[in-house]
Design a protein that fits this description.
Mean pLDDT: 95
Number of strands: 11
Radius of gyration: 31 Å
CATH superfamily of the largest domain: HUPs
Strand order of the largest sheet: 3-4-7
Number of helices: 20
Bound molecules: glutamic acid
Structural class: mainly alpha
Distance between the termini: 78 Å
CATH topology of the largest domain: Rossmann fold
Number of domains: 3
Strand content: 5-15%
Largest sheet: 3 strands, antiparallel
Shape: elongated
CATH class of the largest domain: Alpha Beta
């Protein structure tokens, strides 16, 4: 690592909610800065007004905050390079546009989207890769003036130098080499005057002193353009690392088809941020550490050399594994707080503690406890067929003996003695009668949670043949 302080950034476009691919990018940038005691910047890429949804700015920040990816500078946190919304940096961009234009490094382009589209089709039909044909590259001052006089609004194109080889080291993909002749002159300012992302991101990275850019692999081919731009402006480029794309368990790019793919959806479904981060940490980044890690532990273990090229598989089963680890790591008090929305309000604290202890080993999400809440505290009980059979087979005497043994509380040891049965012959019919099913949480805490009157009533239900 060089001697400079490490500065990383996350540059979301507020055109939608934070999805897992972007959350992973944010996590990696956050961890890299944290590992080296650097700065992590959140910069909103909102120069394209047509794609900006204002409410998404706050929503993206809320999701990042929930994940625990605290930023040092951002739209809501002024810093040495404020503002951190690109829509508020237009005047700055204009200075650089003018500079490039006055140095003949950029030129106005009057081609309409129809003309560009036709040219692109013609190139494709001729078997050539589509790139800007250079129509407006050499317009004279008079020709430009004439077009402006017609009211045509130009975009601004960067003049890509010919005959150059652009080489750089990608932190993930190694040495990259491109020929400038394969890159057409590209738009850096749109017709409406707004900066294209190629331009604003490269410029802001340099101006903000960003040292490392970790971003999705889909941006790899943008990098030579951005390096050319920074070279033209005599600004230092950051190091780039392009992380592999996230795919679902079927190997296709992660999308809605794969279920919940947004951070907010996972939060609302009840996943903990620690579980989400632990799964994301291992997507496209290998680690020998198999245990649940805290954010500082992840930062200490984050290693650029461990970023992988192969597509990273997001798997719900893995996420559930981390979530389940998280649940099992909760203290009794934390677990009770977590399940509070599910607990009936009239429980004694002993009953609540017994309920939490009973269900915790069997649940992944808080909502999973609702079924057991209904079974244990609800009036009516529905029986699954095998449970009904098991209870009937145990016979009325079993239940009469059990029901008679209940005082103001139901104790598993007392019931066992009273029925004279043990092992499965004792537990299974009891479980069947009390819960209507043959599988579920451990019986002793479950019995301790259930009001004694309810236990007696459910046992009495089977005392008549
Ligand atoms: N808004 C872009 C994205 O989300 C960021 C591109 C970049 O990181 O330079 O993909």
């Amino acid at each position: 690592m060089n001697q400079d302080i490490v500065v990383t950034r996350f540059a979301p476009s507020p055109s939608g909610a934070l999805h897992l691919g972007n959350a992973r990018t944010a996590l990696f940038n956050f961890l890299l800065a944290a590992r080296y005691g650097g700065r992590f910047v959140v910069r909103i890429e909102d120069t394209d007004a047509s794609r900006t949804q204002e409410t998404m700015v706050g929503a993206l920040c809320a999701d990042l905050a929930w994940l625990g990816l605290d930023w040092d500078e951002g739209p809501d946190r002024p810093g040495p390079h404020s503002p951190y919304r690109q829509s508020q940096r237009t005047a700055l961009y204009q200075q650089y546009f003018q500079r490039l234009e006055s140095e003949q490094l950029a030129y106005p382009c009057f081609c309409s989207s129809l003309e560009l589209d036709l040219a692109r089709r013609a190139q494709l039909a001729a078997g050539r890769p589509p790139r800007y044909a250079g129509t407006c590259r050499e317009l004279t001052a008079d020709e430009r003036a004439a077009r402006l006089a017609q009211g045509r609004k130009p975009s601004l194109r960067f003049r890509v130098p010919g005959g150059r080889r652009i080489e750089f080291e990608d932190l993930v993909h190694g040495t990259q080499s491109y020929l400038s002749d394969d890159i057409g002159d590209f738009i850096i300012r749109r017709e409406d005057g707004s900066a294209a992302f190629f331009f604003s991101n490269a410029l802001d990275d340099a101006l903000m002193g960003v040292t490392h850019v970790l971003r999705g692999e889909d941006h790899l081919s943008n990098t030579p353009r951005q390096r050319l731009l920074l070279e033209a402006l005599a600004l230092r480029p950051p190091l780039y690392g392009h992380v592999s794309l996230l795919v679902g368990d079927d190997g296709t790019p992660l999308s809605k088809r794969h279920g919940a793919t947004g951070v907010r959806e996972l939060r609302e479904a009840g996943y903990s941020s620690q579980a989400v981060c632990n799964h994301l940490f291992r997507l496209g980044h290998s680690t020998p550490l198999n245990q649940m890690l805290s954010a500082p532990q992840m930062a200490a273990a984050f290693d650029l050399a461990h970023l992988q090229r192969a597509p990273a598989h997001f798997e719900l089963a893995q996420l559930r594994h981390w979530q389940s680890d998280w649940v099992h790591g909760l203290t009794a008090g934390q677990a009770r707080d977590w399940l509070k929305p599910i607990l009936p309000s009239d429980l004694t604290s002993e009953q609540a503690a017994a309920f939490v202890a009973a269900v915790l080993p069997n649940i992944v999400l808080a909502e999973d406890a609702r079924l057991w809440q209904q079974i244990i505290f609800g009036e009516a009980l529905s029986y699954e067929e095998p449970a009904l059979l098991t209870a009937r087979e145990a016979g009325p005497e079993f239940f009469t003996a059990a029901a008679n043994a209940i005082s103001d509380r139901a104790d598993i040891g007392v019931l066992r003695t009273a029925t004279g049965r043990k092992g499965a012959a004792f537990f299974m019919p009891l479980r069947a009668a009390l819960t209507g099913r043959l599988h579920g949480p451990e019986l002793a805490p479950l019995l301790a949670a259930m009001p004694a009157e309810r236990v007696r009533a459910r046992l009495l239900h089977f005392t008549v043949a």
